[in-house]
């Protein structure tokens, strides 16, 4: 059984930050669960262009107001508390935090290890060897 609280991860490699966003990786590939679980905060006024070419992801909005734009179709959806969006085709997308900070719970499959590398068109796979479950 894995039990941990977010505060215990502060100041560790489970935290990641960039301009206008921060994420706490509550579960990673090292936990061998077959998925990773993150709490991500996108600061009000931030726009992020994102794509994980090797991961599928689901994102659930806990608070804030924003929108997600599917680059391929040009379709935009509103993000409010209780809204889920899932990227089943490694979709390139833009997330905008419009009113308040967007707080999202994010699930990735295969799991994020935390050392994925930016590459043209999205993030590449982890440099850490993948173990089987």
Automatic annotation (TrEMBL):
GO molecular function terms noted in the UniProt entry: ectoine synthase activity
Catalysis performed (reactions): (2S)-4-acetamido-2-aminobutanoate = L-ectoine + H2O
SUPFAM superfamilies associated with the record: RmlC-like cupins
Pathway: Amine and polyamine biosynthesis; ectoine biosynthesis; L-ectoine from L-aspartate 4-semialdehyde: step 3/3
EC number assigned by the record: 4.2.1.108
Key words of the record: Lyase
One GO term of the biological process aspect: ectoine biosynthetic process
InterPro entries attached to this UniProt entry: Ectoine_synth (IPR010462), RmlC-like_jellyroll (IPR014710), RmlC_Cupin_sf (IPR011051)
Pfam name, any one: Ectoine_synth
Domain of life the protein comes from: Bacteria
Similarity comment: family membership: Belongs to the ectoine synthase family.
Xref: NCBIfam families: PRK13290.1
Protein name: L-ectoine synthase
Name of the encoding gene: ectC
């Amino acid at each position: 059984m894995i039990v941990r609280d977010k505060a215990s991860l502060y100041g560790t490699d489970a935290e990641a930050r960039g301009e206008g966003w921060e994420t706490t990786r509550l579960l990673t590939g090292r936990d061998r669960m077959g998925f990773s679980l993150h709490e991500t905060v996108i600061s009000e006024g931030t726009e992020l262009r994102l794509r994980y070419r090797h991961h599928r992801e689901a994102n659930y909005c806990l608070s804030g107001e924003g929108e997600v734009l599917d680059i391929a179709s040009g379709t935009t959806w509103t993000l409010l508390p209780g809204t889920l969006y899932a990227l089943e085709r490694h979709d390139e997308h833009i997330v905008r935090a419009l009113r308040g900070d967007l707080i999202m719970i994010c699930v990735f499959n295969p799991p994020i290890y935390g050392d994925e590398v930016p590459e043209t068109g999205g993030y590449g796979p982890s440099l850490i060897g993948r173990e089987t479950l």
